[in-house]
Amino acid sequence: MKKVIAIFAIMLLMPSFVFAATFGQADDYTLPSTEITPGNHYAAGANVNIDGEVNGDLIAAGGNVYINNNVTSDATLAGGNLFINGEIGEDLRIGGGNISIFSNVNGELMAGAGIVKIGSKAVIGKDAHIGGGQLIIDGEFAGDLTLAGDEVVFNGQAVGNVFIDAPMITLGENARIDGALHYKTKEAIQGLSAIVAGEITFEQIITKHDGDDKNYLAGLIGGMMIFRFLMTLAFAFIIFAIFKKYTTDTIEHSIKKFGMSLLAGLIVVIVTPIISILLLITLLGAPFTVILVSYAVILSVLAKILASMMLGTLVFKVFKKKNIVNWWTILVGVILMQFVILIPIFGWIFALVLFLTSVGVLFFQTVDGLKRIR
Predict the structure, then answer these.
(1) Do both 34 and 179 map to the same domain?
(2) Closest by alpha carbon to 90, among 72, 66, 70?
(3) pLDDT at 136
(4) Are the C-beta atoms of residues 241 and 44 closer than 8 Å to each other?
(5) CA 298, CA 214: separation in Å to the nearest integer?
(6) Rounded distance, CA 330 to CA 339, Å?
(7) Does one domain contain both 184 and 328?
């Protein structure tokens, strides 16, 4: 009965598009220009080149991702450097270190990265929410446009309303806004009436939120959630691509010794802050405190990623009766974890258990590594 309930719950949480797709993975993966995928396509690797056409959704992650042909439906992309040279038929969700978009996106755009560049020939068909460090925005935007970052350079054309939040804002000579402009920066920008057809609103310090602000904040929050998903997926794929055997062994070990790993993770989480405080009290212990805290931060980040990987393996174990660790299980695990953490109380507890188990097994791996060094 428990198994039936588990399978039923997994089926409810599993997005239907996962089952009707092709999957490609390699350290250097290329979808040839001569190929046309019949449906959804998933790709992962250190370098990913999509030269063929995708007749469906595309999910891709890697160190470098190049989209050089058309995607007829949605595209979800994550990686270090991402280049969009092919048309996206519907929505584009993208996150990474550097993003460059040089082609049309017919649906909504949600992007987050250290640097985001939108080329002058790109046309975004619906609303766009873009966040990051430096945003260099050209092109045309048919819907509303939200920009948030450290520096925003806008030299494009927007049909709808534009919301900008950045300490540094530059509007180029080609900038045109048919709708309203609401912007927040250090000082008001002069001469905006020449390029903005609608109402202009400037806020130096936001103290309350009207309807537009709520939409603006909702867009940013949604963008953060998508960005978190994309980053988790990207790092999971990259870690697996580089440390495939180590990752597989770690996940299998965590499942095999689940109880012991969970207990060890709980002890590590409780004891680490106590030891850090005790070390900090003594002058000689201060350097060790820095090392311990740094280790705890790295352990926490890796454990969150490993927890998603473990979830995917556990799901497939229900169906396949054995532990499977591959690109497919990682993708499923990362997707499912985004749903699990949205479930109040029970979802949080389940995610916490997987996180603590991951902390425990990574701690054991660290101890084993230190023993081998000795």
Answers:
(1) yes
(2) 72
(3) 94
(4) yes
(5) 35
(6) 15
(7) no
Number of residues written out for the chain: 374
What is the C-alpha to C-alpha distance for residues 73 and 20, in angstroms, rounded to an integer? 14
Asked if 167 contacts 149 with a C-beta cutoff of 8 angstroms, the reply is no
Could you give the 3-state DSSP secondary structure of residue 58? Answer: strand
Is the CB of residue 127 less than 8 Å from the CB of residue 111? Answer: no
Gap between the Cα atoms of 339 and 274, Å rounded: 33
Is there a single domain that holds both residue 185 and residue 319?
no
Q: Is residue 132 part of a domain?
A: yes
The structure tokens listed for 26 are 């390699």
**Residues spanned by the domain of 71:** 20-217
Nearest to 110 by CA among 209, 234, 225, 238: 225
Give the span between the Cα atoms of 58 and 43, in whole angstroms. Answer: 8
Over the Cα atoms of the chain, what is R_g?
Answer: 23
Residue pair 127/110 in contact by the 8 Å Cβ criterion: no
Q: What is this structure's pTM?
A: 0.59
Structure-token match 């045309």, residue found: 140
What is the helix, strand, coil percentage profile of the chain, to 5?
45, 30, 25
Scanning 194-320, the segments in alpha helix (DSSP H) are 211-242, 244-256, 258-281, 286-320
| Intervals of the chain under pLDDT 70 | 1-21, 25-26, 205-228, 279-290, 321, 373-374
Give a yes or no: residue 280 inside a domain. Answer: yes
Task: Give the Cα separation of 185 and 167 in Å (integer).
Answer: 5
* Secondary structure letter of residue 97 according to DSSP: E
67 and 193 in a single domain? The answer is yes
Q: Given the DSSP bridges, would you call strands 162-165 and 145-154 parallel, antiparallel or unpaired?
A: parallel
Alpha-carbon distance of 8 to 47, in angstroms, equals: 36
**What pLDDT score was predicted for residue 219?**
53
Instruction: Describe the crossing of helices 286-320 and 2-13 by its angle, rounded to 10 degrees.
Output: 110
Q: Spell 255-290 as b/e; 16+ CB within 10 A means b.
A: bebbeebbebbbebbeebeeebeebeeeeebeeebe
